[in-house]
Amino acid sequence: MTTLSSGFARARRWLRDHPLAFDATLAFCTLVAMICSSFTDPGDGHGPPAFGARTPELFSVLLMTLTAAALVLRRRRPMQVLAVTAALAAVEYVLMDPPAPVVMSTVIALYTVASRTDRPTTWRVGLLTMGGLTAAAMVFGSTPWYSQENFGVFAWTGLASAAGDAVRSRRAFVDAIRERAERAERTREEEARRRVAEERLRIARDLHDVVAHHIALVNVQAGVAAHVMDKRPDQAKEALAHVRDASRSALNELRVTVGLLRQQGDPEAPTEPAPGLAVLGELVTTFRNAGLPVEVACADRDRLPAAVDLAAYRVIQEALTNVRKHAGAGARAEVSVVRVGATAEVTVLDNGRGSAGRRPGTGPAGGTGPDGGGPGDGDGQAGGGHGLVGMRERVTALGGALTAGPRYGGGFRVHAILPVEARTGEPDRPGTAGGTGLRR
């Protein structure tokens, strides 16, 4: 039984892959069926049909052969095949009595047309074929117009139209389902690529914040050490110690950030929490050691969501880095984090004047860069920096807003408004669930 079913399956696949061979086989089977039926006398309706009671005329055999041969082209020329078979069937009804079942080929041709065209065309062609052949059978036949053979013509042609339309509808339904499935698959792939791009952008921002902050501190402290190395070696040692601490902190944060790119199961996965306002005091201390006086004010110590906590920390880090780099000597900075309703407001102020040509300036995102540099200069400017752009993207991703610009009377101001309910799609990273407190 298994061998028989597998043989049928192989034959069906072969015929589906070779439609012309299938149509030729169908045409041959139809011819055999028509010839066998032409030997059958239906009788007067009171008894069973008698096989061999009559013999078809040579002309009828010729018409049956022609209509069967036309079916070989039914897929390539469905309308023409239907017209030929219907015309030959009508000729059979007009000239021969009793007629041979040439109409069988017309039924198959009509089914093909209905399965390959739209519904309005099926209705028009089907009604025309049904009406024409039924009228020919009723008018030119020797049997009464109400005989079952005449109504059989009407029934079989109507059934062919209905069956072909049903097959066409089912095929269209299956194609629509397949198309929706393919479109959904493409959408999932595009969404996956979009999420990967967003994750890469977020990690790039983290790397920029880490490198810009710590390398700026290392550069400042190294310059101090080189300046006082000969006259004040103790102060030079202290500056070098700050360089060591800043570089170690940079390496640790880089290890945590790059560790996010590891595959699941890779060894040495990051286990340290992402930085946040909980370590704001340590961040401020590094700037104070670099010679930048910083005052911190936190009016609210409520916990923030992890994404908001990280964004607030990065904004403060980047803003203070730019103050240290560009505000000039004698500059002071003030940092405040305040909870206002459903938002957290982060403000970084400084009173620096900046070096000539560097403050104030306008960043590429349509606002003023936090470093105050001119176009093409420093972090956040068009010359390749990403400070202002990174801060804006980070805040905007959470549904917040960031403004930066010169203060009246001198100095610079960076102000970020972050919604407490983060709308970023980023998952919480290890150690940040629930957020952290706002501490100095």
Descriptive account of the structure:
- With 440 residues, the chain is of the alpha+beta class.
- It has 11 helices and 7 strands.
- The protein has helices at 2-17, 19-38, 58-70, 78-95, 103-116, 119-140, 148-228, 233-259, 280-289, 306-326, 387-397; strands spanning 40-41, 50-51, 294-298, 333-340, 343-350, 401-406, 412-419.
- The strands form 2 sheets. Strands 3-4-5-7-6 form a 5-stranded mixed β-sheet. Strands 1-2 form a two-stranded antiparallel ribbon.
- Strand 6 (401-406) and strand 7 form a beta hairpin.
- Helix 7 (148-228) crosses helix 10 (306-326) and helix 7 crosses helix 11.
- The longest helix is centred in the middle third of the chain and has 81 residues, at 148-228.
Which tags fit this structure?
alpha+beta, single chain, 7 strands, 9% strand, disordered C terminus, rod-shaped, two-stranded antiparallel sheet, 57% helix, 5-stranded mixed beta sheet, 440 residues, 11 helices
Choose one word for the global shape.
rod-shaped
Distance between the termini: 82 Å
Report helical residue fraction: 55-70%
Gyration radius, in Å: 43 Å
The whole-number mean of residue pLDDT values reads 76
The amount of beta strand, in percent, is 5-15%
> What's the story with the biggest beta sheet?
5 strands, mixed
Topology record:
Layout: H1 2-17, H2 19-38, E1 40-41, E2 50-51, H3 58-70, H4 78-95, H5 103-116, H6 119-140, H7 148-228, H8 233-259, H9 280-289, E3 294-298, H10 306-326, E4 333-340, E5 343-350, H11 387-397, E6 401-406, E7 412-419
Parallel strand pairs: 3-4
Antiparallel strand pairs: 1-2, 4-5, 5-7, 6-7
